[in-house]
Amino acid sequence: MNSINTNYSIRDEIRDFWSERAATFDNSVGHEIFSEAERKGWQRLIRKHLGEGQGRAALDLACGTAVISHLMHDVGFAVTGLDWSDAMLAQARAKAKKRGTDIRFVSGDAENTMEPKNSYDVITNRHLVWTLVDPASAFKEWFSVLKPGGKVLILDGNMGRETWVKGPQKFWTKVTGKPPASHMSPEMMARHQKIRSRVHFSNQMPAEAVVDLLRQAGFTDIVIDRKLADIHWAQARKMPFLRGLERMVQDRFAICARRPG
């Protein structure tokens, strides 16, 4: 991992990147939910690993526009959504107001939440871990914020690993002169790659590497769940063909781990 000695840190760059994407974030499949089938798939996954909420306290880290926060709320959790981007939080609060939900939103860094120790029954996050500069320290922070016996549910994937679909995508670009469909402009894609080159998981992020860091932080009963086909199929049906095909074959996973107690 590289570092630079300026007042504008990689963490600032990550925050500003996602702030600029906030206004259009929910337009993309895989961010917001566009079918009841996908919604039910996510709810199935949450219940499978965390059970029914029953009013238990949940902290949704890097909540963005609160997609996962609302899913957690739907299954009965008392949800706090935390994000470092004010622009994302503005979108999240507007969505919660429109839907009439009582989700609490706070500004904060997922690597240093400033939330009280031993205060949450569960922690969730989606597409966060790859952005962490120091995941080992972040996981220790999450461990401390959870109550004894609490669980963390990580929803992510090894996005740095190219799939066989890249071949047809490159062929399509060569034949048509058109790049593969993307929810980011070339400029934003370049910024995305620049950020990725400087975080901890700068290349690939295999689930097993995340598990090792969780174990080092003290978590136990760690489970890797790759049975997400219902979610990915629902998403793929809303995507251009090659992007949908790639979604179906990517190494995306859920990781659930428990704080002993």
Automatic annotation (TrEMBL):
Classification via Gene3D superfamilies: Vaccinia Virus protein VP39
Single GO BP term: methylation
Superkingdom, taxonomy of origin: Bacteria
Pfam families for the chain: Methyltransf_11
CDD domains xrefs: AdoMet_MTases
GO molecular function, one term: methyltransferase activity
Keywords annotated in UniProt: Methyltransferase, Transferase
Record domain Methyltransferase type: where: 59-154
SUPFAM superfamilies referenced in this protein's UniProt entry, alphabetically: S-adenosyl-L-methionine-dependent methyltransferases
This protein's name: SAM-dependent methyltransferase
Organism, scientific name: Rhizobium ruizarguesonis
